[in-house]
Fold this protein.
Amino acid sequence: MFDLDNTLHNATPHIFPQINTAMTQYLQSELGIDATAAGELRRHYWQRYGATLIGLMRHHGTDPRHFLWHTHQFPDLKRMLVREPRLRATLRRLPGRKFVFSNAPVHYSRAVLSALGISDLFECANHIRLARCIMVEDTLENLRTAKKLGMKTIWISRAARAPSYVDVRTASLMRLTRMLARLE
């Protein structure tokens, strides 16, 4: 299982800033507030709930599909993507079935996989045995959960040390084929 943003591609330079701007604009438009108030409300909801959307749903009855659709529009997605040139070749060399696990909306996830030229390498997750899965992720919290569910874990990070629930740490997804041996 692969996380999408900041694992299969680098979303930090172009994608995440646009999502942040779109979320602030969404709050302005839907709640009738200025940019400063929207930014403060987003920070408050993030600190209290861990996500802007949860606060919007709880306090404003926001439809999550509407919010995610409007905050994940990228007409120039191919130009915005920061990709690893050898990504497709690396993924093809990996054994087993491949799945994307993301909190991003489906339309965005599919568009990113297509723009990366790797959508044909991934399947829909149906009736998978978690004990046979490896979660490849850049976020420690998600890896902690994956480990609790019985998965092996690979952390994509340049950090020097990894917590005990991380089975393998690698700085680059391109080194993944070499790292698999450590999980056996």
Remarks:
- The mean pLDDT is 95.
- DSSP finds nine helices and three strands in the chain.
